[in-house]
Specification:
The complex is a heterotrimer of chains A (about 325), B (about 325) and C (about 325). With about 325 residues, chain A is mainly β. Helices cover about 5% and strands about 40% of the residues of chain A. Chain C has one domain (about 1-25, about 45-330): Neuraminidase (6 Propeller). Chains in contact: A-B, B-C.
Chain lengths: ~325, ~325, ~325
């Protein structure tokens, strides 16, 4: 191994060891890409990126793995049609209306943008000194919002205005480590962080209305009176409602305050991680939801469910996955 | 079926107290405690280009959106803490001050939340938009804890505000810009006496404007009347009673002269109990009577202006503790 | 001298404490004693007494769980009298002339005493309601009483116009019963139900010109904080002071309530309303006193106001499960 690679592996082992230690050996919920107790987050990846041809009109599913690669599947056929390897630790993903895919590289402190079906990044966003965990692109403005976990310090939401590399940073009001964010169709942003650590992280929600200059902390009512939000994995937008993803999907409207709508059960083996809502176009609401299922030590999978029905998965991918941590769908026809 | 009749009023009461009803309950004034329902935006509100009247209600913590022509409710925005005075720009946006939240919410013509301006320690109760600069001036009644209020000016209605005060003023209520971009606002001193102040354009502090030609006992609305080139100033304690009226006030130098009074009647032909904020639009004065005097239900009214007198139309079915009024075009 | 009075009444005091606890905090399913005759405890056999020459002394009156109202020189803390005409004395209030009004929840009446007097100068019949606290309107001398009848019947605010013997009663379906009331300097009345499980704490107000209670939202230090267990409301000279363990100041301006600030009180009690000492009308009070029931002892604590913090004095002799307190200021004549 080259000395640089050794350094990477050692750093990852250390990172993995420390993080696993924090969680007491149990995988830290919401933590960056840690999927099995004590296992290193990054393994030496082999080979160059590859991608099949003729994917222009195909809906593509991108899945990031703990072994440092991003798998690309045909969304409907579930066949593996490409692997992107030029990462240190890819964690979260998002896609924009044009089909470009953005992949957060946590340890490398950057976000790579790939064209639909592309093999090489078309743009790199320097996110240092922060550790990007997830992202979202505004359909309204094209702005890229990055949820920075902040391993060495508090995290934030970094918003890169459309086409620009200079972000505006939005901090939370607690010791926040942001794990996910989402835009609605109007350009409002919804985000969630791990906050206030004292043995366990509580999930704290924030809202940035489209003209807002600061993240506003939001109290979300739960489905029951004494509900506490813990271990939230992601937030999303389905075309009509905001979703909170924590072992299932909880739907909300937000206009001044948040109102709970309903709960969608997603059955599966393992722990539900981040999800992606499949929306045919901006005029429709979600018709399917696809999500990462971490089955520590057993078979990890990416499951597909009908939306908003939920219930049992209608399809599943298990091949070629290794501790999947994030996913996004890049539509074949531009929005 | 007869034996089930007793059921109905109980169900109605339970639903009114925060069930999942979507449209506003008809015929019964809502119980004055915070509305737990989600916002309701009617199909008409989603489409309309017609002028709308936004009325904030501190009892239900809602903002009711009325069609100006029909005075029917076309939307209810819920989720505020203590909504107070309001203002609007010329693009249909309405700002709603929220006193206990220390926040000013910006709503679009369709009732969607566009922005939140949060200022800890402030008690925002009034605001006004400056068409010459696009700035938003927010009147903070008091400072928390135990301090006088002030005027927070948000450049272009976003971001970090600058604080302006009149050192002699304690409570800050309502204000508006004149045609030259000078801000006039009312309030009271520490002893509770009515005050009128001016923050001239470009200056860093405000000064007192002496009021002559009459007495205003409790600060009400302040609005620039472009047609008459003077201000409409409201008195929430007209004649030192629990009654409301509005005055025409002409500014000359550092003096404000009361040149006329408009008396306003409620639905029973009596005096209004408390018009907190009215708004002049199209030769009419629109606003709500917060009737804690107990003579009529609280209601939203439209009166001819400057004639006043009996209302041309009103809606007494919705309001609980109505406070602010603004027009969204 | 103290042990003579109290030693042989220990058993009665214990019984009185239990009954006071039942009648104080509203509990579901527990009936509050309604008729004066039904649950009257055996009265102590001693008579009311009071030192002479107290006209120029500020006096502190304390309602105790053992049914006695003990009276002290406010500044010197010495016991100067005991009033025994009560079955279950609760909240108290005073007017600008130094008259003291003491509610008797079980006897369903309010007794008025002159400053330093031992015999009531007036009795206000509050039946069928059980009075909890009271306040005097400084602009008229009217007496407002908050009535708490438990869950068996709705309570009310009863207001006696000065000089009259029958009150006007006001009810409110949201609050249901009333545990706190106070007038401001302008004659507006703010009232509360204290707390009503499981519905919550609510407030209402009666404007000087109004003819009905109007519900009002009273904000706390921040919108997400709900009122816990409000024990009372006072007027502190400038603002309404809400007793919710700490004191939270509220400006009630034209029917809108605004949060102004808070006073943290260490070693505070959660039993009964405080009283704010204020001998300069038009300015803000300078001390606050309130009863504290500890596991081992009862005390009436004094604090600086509005700064609060640690108590500056704890008065304990003669104090037995204190509930309401009031201060009758020395007379200027």
């Amino acid at each position: 191994m080259s000395s640089l690679t050794t350094l990477r592996v050692v750093a990852a082992l250390v990172a993995g060891g420390i993080l696993a230690g924090c969680g007491g050996g149990v995988p830290q919920v919401g933590g960056p890409g840690i999927t099995s107790a004590g296992a290193p987050a990054v393994r030496e990846h082999r080979g160059e990126s590859w991608m099949a041809k003729g994917l222009k009109n195909r809906d593509l599913l991108y899945v990031s793995n703990s072994d440092g690669v991003v798998n690309v599947y045909r969304y409907w056929q579930h066949t593996l049609v490409g692997v992107l390897t030029n990462f240190t630790q890819p964690v979260g993903e998002c896609a924009d209306a044009a089909g470009n895919v953005y992949i957060t590289d946590y340890t490398a402190e950057k976000v790579d943008e790939y064209a639909h079906g592309g093999k090489k990044p078309i743009k790199v966003y320097d996110d240092s000194p922060y550790q990007p965990q997830a992202c979202a692109v505004s359909a309204k403005t094209g702005d890229l919002a990055v949820a920075n976990y902040g391993y060495y310090q508090a995290g934030n939401i970094a918003v890169y205005p459309h086409g620009s590399g200079s972000p505006t940073f939005y901090g939370g009001t607690r010791d926040d480590h942001f794990i996910s964010c989402a835009y609605d169709d109007r350009g409002d942003l919804f985000a969630v962080s791990n906050a206030g650590y004292s043995g366990i992280y509580y999930s704290q929600f924030y809202y940035l209305p489209k003209r807002g200059a600061q993240l506003v902390p939001m109290n979300l009512p739960g489905p029951s009176r004494s509900w506490e939000w813990r271990g939230v994995r992601a937030v999303a937008w389905d075309g009509e409602y905001w979703l909170v993803d924590v072992y299932g999907l909880y739907r909300f409207t937000i206009n001044v305050k948040a109102t709970y709508v309903d709960t969608i059960t997603l059955q599966g083996d393992g722990d539900l991680g981040p999800v992606w809502i499949y929306r045919k176009n901006l005029k429709s609401t979600g018709s399917q939801v696809v999500g990462v299922e971490n089955n520590y030590g057993q078979t990890d999978s990416v499951d597909f469910w009908s939306y908003p029905a939920g219930g049992s998965p209608i399809a599943q991918i298990t091949k070629d996955l290794d501790g999947p941590s994030g996913l996004a769908v890049s539509m074949g026809t531009p929005q | 079926m007869k034996r089930y009749y007793w059921f109905v009023p109980i169900l109605f009461v339970l639903c009114a107290c925060g069930g999942n009803a979507v449209a506003p309950a008809l015929g019964v004034a809502p119980a004055p405690h915070p509305d737990r329902r989600s916002s309701w935006i009617s199909p008409e509100l989603e489409r309309t280009q017609a002028p709308l009247l936004f009325v904030s209600d501190a009892g239900t913590a809602d903002v009711y959106i009325y069609n100006v022509k029909t005075l029917k409710v076309v939307g209810t925005i819920t989720g505020f803490a203590q909504p107070q005075g309001e203002c609007s720009d010329n693009k249909g946006n309405v700002w709603v001050t929220d006193a206990s939240g220390g926040t000013v919410y910006e709503l679009s013509h369709r009732g969607h939340l566009e922005n939140e301006l949060v200022q800890k320690g402030a008690t925002p109760v009034g605001c006004t938009w400056d068409p010459t600069t696009g700035n938003l001036a927010v009147m903070s009644l008091l400072g928390v804890p135990s301090q006088s209020g002030g005027v927070l000016v948000f450049p272009k209605g976003v971001g970090t505000p600058t604080l302006y005060t009149n050192s002699k003023q304690y409570f800050y209520n309502f204000g508006d810009y004149d045609a030259g971009g000078n801000l006039f606002f009312d309030g009271r001193d520490a002893n509770g006496n009515f005050m009128l102040s001016e923050l001239p354009k470009g200056k860093s502090s405000a000064h007192t404007v002496a009021l002559t030609g009459g007495t205003i006992y409790f600060p009400g609305m302040v609005q620039w009347d472009a047609a008459k080139q003077d201000f409409i100033v409201g008195d929430q304690s007209c004649g030192n009673l629990y009654a409301s009226c509005v005055y025409s006030v002409k500014i000359a130098g550092n003096t404000a002269s009361i040149t006329g009074e408009t008396k306003l009647q409620n639905s029973a032909g009596g005096q209004l109990c408390d018009l907190v904020q009215g708004v002049l639009f199209n030769k009419e004065l629109l606003g709500s009577d917060n009737d804690f005097c107990g003579s009529t239900p609280s209601a939203t009214y439209i009166w001819p202006y400057p004639g006043g007198g009996a209302p041309t139309r009103y809606n007494g079915k919705t309001d609980s503790v109505p406070v602010g009024a603004a027009i969204s075009r | 001298m103290m042990t003579n009075r109290y030693g042989h009444l220990f058993a009665l005091a214990a019984a009185a404490t239990m009954l006071a606890a039942c009648g104080g905090a509203p509990m579901q399913g527990v009936a509050v004693p309604q008729g004066a005759s039904s649950q009257r405890r055996v009265r102590p056999q001693h008579r009311s007494w009071m030192d002479l020459g107290l006209a120029k002394q500020d006096l502190l009156y304390v309602s105790n769980g053992n049914s006695e109202v003990t009276v002290y020189r406010y500044w010197q803390h010495t016991l100067v009298g005991v009033l025994t005409q009560f079955t279950q004395p609760k909240g108290e209030c005073a007017d600008s002339a130094g008259n003291v009004y003491i509610t008797d929840s079980t006897a369903q009446r309010i007794l008025e005493f002159a400053h330093g007097g031992t015999k009531p100068i007036k009795s206000f019949d509050d039946s069928p309601d059980s009075p909890y606290t009271c306040s005097i309107d400084p602009t008229t001398g009217n007496l407002a009483v908050a009535n708490q009848d438990g869950t068996s019947q709705p309570g009310s605010i009863a207001i006696w116009k000065k000089g009259s013997s029958s009150p006007t009663r006001y009810t409110d379906s949201l609050l249901y019963y009333f545990e706190g009331c106070a007038y401001d300097a302008n004659g507006n009345l703010l009232v509360t139900n204290g707390s009503r499980y499981p519905y919550g704490t609510y407030f209402a107000w009666l404007s000087k010109a109004g003819n009905k209670l109007i519900n009002i939202t009273v904000p706390g230090p921040d919108p997400s904080r709900a009122w816990g267990y409000v024990q009372g409301i006072q007027w502190d000279g400038k603002y309404f002071a809400i007793d919710d363990y700490y004191i939270y100041r509220i400006a009630l301006i034209h029917g809108q309530a605004y949060y102004v600030g808070e006073t943290e009180l260490d070693a505070a009690g959660s039993n009964g309303p405080y009283w704010i000492y204020n001998n300069k009308p038009g300015t803000q009070g300078t001390q606050v006193v309130g009863g504290v029931n500890g596991d081992e002892d009862s005390v009436v604590n004094y604090w600086h106001y509005p700064s609060g913090g640690e108590p500056i004095f704890g008065l304990s002799h003669g104090i037995d499960n204190p509930f309401g307190v009031t201060v009758s200021l020395k007379q200027q004549k």
